[in-house]
Amino acid sequence: MEFFLKWVEEKLMPPMAKLAEQRHLRAVRDGIVATLPLIIVGSFFLIVASPPIPALAEKIQPYASQILIPFRLSVGLMALYAAHGIGYSLAKSYNLDPVAGGLLALASFIMITLPQNVEKIGFVLPMGGLGGAGLFAAIIMAFFAVEVLRFLTVRKITIKMPEGVPESVARSFEALIPAAAIMVIIYIVRVMLNINIQELIMNLFKPLVTAGDSLIGVLVPVILITLLWSAGIHGVSVVGSIARPIWMALLDENTQAAAAGAKILPHIAPEPFFQWFIWIGGSGATLSLVLLMLTSKSRYLKNLGKASLLPGVCNINEPVIFGAPIMLNPILAIPFIIGPVITAVISYIAMVFNLVGRPYVLAPWTLPAPIGAYLATGGDWRAVVLVLVNIALTTIIYYPFFKVYERKMMEEETES
Amino acid sequence: MKILLVCSGGMSTSIVLKAVEKKAAELKEDVYVEAASTTQFEERVKDFDVVLIAPQVRHRKQFFEEIASKHGIPTGLIEPQAYGPFGGEKILRQAKKLLEEV
């Protein structure tokens, strides 16, 4: 195990961390993360529109479409917000004007959607491609816009204003040529050549989204995240750079299905699946370990357990990972990696057979897991049961390793 | 002395922040500590004397270092063992040492 952890730290971690720090992936991560408050608040309107209490749900039903308006304009336009966020972050990382980057990215993304003329209403933009389904198109178009902006800026192909012109005016002129280039290129491809860029990108990434919802697609990120954390690196932040767009696309299809009144949702593994059913207490399901530490005869472990309980309930587990420590600890790293694999498989199977509702609401990740799971499934009490079963399971898995480690700690304590 | 602690989301650093504040109060030292997420970091860093990086984002050290060095602010990596509810003293000592070396 020691050898294995060394391998993780020296061989696996550096290339993964480097990949996650790649400029474009970082922009995608930061851009999408910036939209999360809107998605979290927006998806709560779904619960309000169809509350978990049947009698209440019936009363609300006639007003559901009105209640869902904020949901449609936040979650339903997820890709639109993300395009701006990604363009902003990417431009900033190149030291370009981030506001110009964000706006050009937003424009590039909108321009691949053709407005429709609807009788009595006028021109409208079909919203279907502007939500999670369009997320990959938003990413590609944001890259395109900012790369064009950079290409032209680096080669100084911009309109320069003489000195003395106010900066804001000068800036608007500087963005003229990039804006023209972007609009003309997209116009030629989308309208003149009639290539449906949106659909093209969507089909290109479809296999990835389908794979992300499979059991293997769940286990790969779970294992990578615990491996990275066992080397002391923020696993979700690294793996999420790549996986988050997939998780969001899955979430979007589930929210749309739920808003349309579907009883069984199409996907199992949007991000809330990992957050509430696997990462109970933080990555590695460490709430179980904290509970075991509370009962410990080792003074140090008991104190650490007390100090880590409240953060643990809120899914913050750095105190345990670095304090116990789990990081590079050949004893505790084993249940830290194995526990989540087992709870992932069990939760996945429970949802395949619809024993537990599938997640579609994004709740803040610092909520206690049973509450988070209840909200994420739109108020399914069976989700709470599954969380409790998973806590019990990981406690059993941690127990023998904890006992071995506790004995070692107590020996050290009596020696000193 | 003004210390900026940086981690991924600014959540776990807020726990460490309390540990540092508590220790500083015990030692009657004039210390101001703030926790920042990676995205807040760039805006906040200029107001501080020293930056300490959480161990779980050490793969981003170069990124933090580059920004901090523009303002002439020294950066250090927090040792994993010090990154917890009992690490206040160690972190204070590390911050002081970094400032002395400037």
UniProtKB/TrEMBL annotation, chain A:
One of its GO terms (biological process) is carbohydrate derivative transport. GO terms for cellular component: plasma membrane. The chain crosses the membrane at residues 32-51, 63-82, 94-114, 134-152, 173-195, 215-239, 273-294, 331-353, 360-377, 383-402. It comes from the Bacteria. This is Permease IIC component. One of its GO terms (molecular function) is protein-N(PI)-phosphohistidine-sugar phosphotransferase activity. PROSITE patterns: PTS_EIIC_TYPE_3 (PS51105). It holds the Pfam family PTS_EIIC.
Automatic annotation (TrEMBL), chain B:
InterPro entries: PTS_EIIB-like_sf, PTS_EIIB_2/3, PTS_EIIB_3, PTS_sugar-specific_EIIB. The modification Phosphocysteine is found at residue 7. Residues 1-102 form the PTS EIIB type-3 domain. GO terms for molecular function: kinase activity; protein-N(PI)-phosphohistidine-sugar phosphotransferase activity. GO terms for biological process: phosphoenolpyruvate-dependent sugar phosphotransferase system. Pfam families: PTS_IIB. Transmembrane segments: none annotated. Keywords: Kinase, Phosphoprotein, Phosphotransferase system, Sugar transport, Transferase, Transport. It comes from the Bacteria. This is Phosphotransferase system lactose/cellobiose-specific IIB subunit. It comes from Thermosediminibacter oceani (strain ATCC BAA-1034 / DSM 16646 / JW/IW-1228P).
